[in-house]
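Structure in, sequence out. Go:
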């Protein structure tokens, strides 16, 4: 029987069940160890904390269950992205990146790939297929893109990029495996910042790489071992705990975002609203075809920097904070972080608050800036 989102969610909390001996704790024990008892031939046993840790194994097992693919954990989303770049690329390679995705991915390419002779080009997500993929060793998509929420057709990108001989990577941070399944759509690699909804409590940074290609998994694992960018066991333990409720949180956040996007669009203070789940959004038809849910991020414009700051700061059920995917609704004026967006552009991350109360707080704050 093939797995569905529900069947994956149902078995997620019971993954440890088969390995339990009588008297073992049901919740995951935290293994804080740099060294392990290792007399004689140590082959097959944990030896040193840069190579293995049973708390990582448990969180990677959960992520692998969700992705339906082997996963390797990292101490942040950027560490996962770096492992893909530095594990797979060599001097002379060319990479295609989104011009409108998370800014640090472009900065990593500019500051650290370029000096090693790895070149890169940028293309907007909404026209990512235009121009084809000839000459690229790696094609890296972020869909929906952060922060404008444009999307590209993962299946079409994977088919065309594979014909050109490229490896296809998708940053699935904004969607999680419950919202979109790039590997099932033909991508070779998923990278994700589990710092966001996967952990969900805004108290830890974490990332992972997922792939069904054993050579890719070996390359990023080797990078982790040699570069030493390993997740801390306590962080892994927190992410394990967060993942147990991802299905419930993500469901609430996406359902609320669908409702709030509709209402925001009709408010007189709001323009340029983007949400892939809204009929009429430029991304909607493709989103319906390739996404399982439409996500919890909504973006829109307010008249000015001052109005956007006032809206965020005055809303009683909203945190003024960067990042997204937490249980608390949060928002940020993205021009503040250097994104190429108007000064009043707001990225809203809808949290787990009951939707009517959340909308009342949002509407009250919008009414206040509308005068
Ligand atoms: C789409 C996307 N990818 C990757 C990252 C990097 O994740 P981290 O901050 O955990 O390194 C972020 C962070 O905001 C992001 O939004």
């Amino acid at each position: 029987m093939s797995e569905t989102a529900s069947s994956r969610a149902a078995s997620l909390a019971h993954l440890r069940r088969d390995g339990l001996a009588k008297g073992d704790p049901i919740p995951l024990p935290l293994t804080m160890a740099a060294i392990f008892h290792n007399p004689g031939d140590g082959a097959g046993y944990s030896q040193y904390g840069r190579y293995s840790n049973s708390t990582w194994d448990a969180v990677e097992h959960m992520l692998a269950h969700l992705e339906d693919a082997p996963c390797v954990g990292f101490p942040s989303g950027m560490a996962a992205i770096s492992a893909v770049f530095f594990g797979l690329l060599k001097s002379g390679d060319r990479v295609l990146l989104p011009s409108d995705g998370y800014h640090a991915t472009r900065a990593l390419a500019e500051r650290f790939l370029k000096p090693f002779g790895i070149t890169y080009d940028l293309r907007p997500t909404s026209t990512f297929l235009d121009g084809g993929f000839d000459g690229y060793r790696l094609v890296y998509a972020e869909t929906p893109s952060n922060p404008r929420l444009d999307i590209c057709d993962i299946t079409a990108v994977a088919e065309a990029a594979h014909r050109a001989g490229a490896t296809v990577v998708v940053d699935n941070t904004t969607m999680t495996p419950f919202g979109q399944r790039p590997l099932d759509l033909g991508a070779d690699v998923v990278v994700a910042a589990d710092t966001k909804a996967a952990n969900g409590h805004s108290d830890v940074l974490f990332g992972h790489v997922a792939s069904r290609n054993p050579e890719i998994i070996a390359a990023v694992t080797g990078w982790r071992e040699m570069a030493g960018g390993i997740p801390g066991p306590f962080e892994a333990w927190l992410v394990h705990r967060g993942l147990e409720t991802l299905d419930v949180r993500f469901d609430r956040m996406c359902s609320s975002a669908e409702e709030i996007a509709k209402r925001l669009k009709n408010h007189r203070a709001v323009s340029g609203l983007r949400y892939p789940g809204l009929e009429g959004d430029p991304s909607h038809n493709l989103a319906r075809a390739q996404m399982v849910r439409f996500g919890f991020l909504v973006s829109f414009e307010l008249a000015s920097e001052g109005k956007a700051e006032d809206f965020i700061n005055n809303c009683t059920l909203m945190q003024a904070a960067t990042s997204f995917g937490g249980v608390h609704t949060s928002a940020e004026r993205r021009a503040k972080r250097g994104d190429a967006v108007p000064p009043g552009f707001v990225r809203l991350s809808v949290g787990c608050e009951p939707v009517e109360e959340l909308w009342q707080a949002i509407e009250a704050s919008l009414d206040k800036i509308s005068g």
